[in-house]
Design a protein that fits this description.
about 90 residues, two-stranded antiparallel sheet, 3 helices, 2 strands, flat
Amino acid sequence: MSIQDLGIVATEYRALQAEIKALEEQADALKQTMIKEMDARQAEKLQAGAFEIRYTLVESSRLDSKKLKADHADLCAQYTSKTTSTRFQVA
């Protein structure tokens, strides 16, 4: 593949990424519409045609690694491992 061909592929890639972003924004707007309706009805679950729509509160616990590192740096270092990964960008 030539550099010129790679440039064409990169252009197509960026165009698709823009389309994906636009579709994600549209999907988010639809989601917000459904959430507003559920809030107005004070409902956590609604049956809408063939779909069951749920909007519920979910609790989770997360480790505050910044606080752990600040309060117990030695312990944090003991249980920290480094990883490597690749990053792909078209800028």
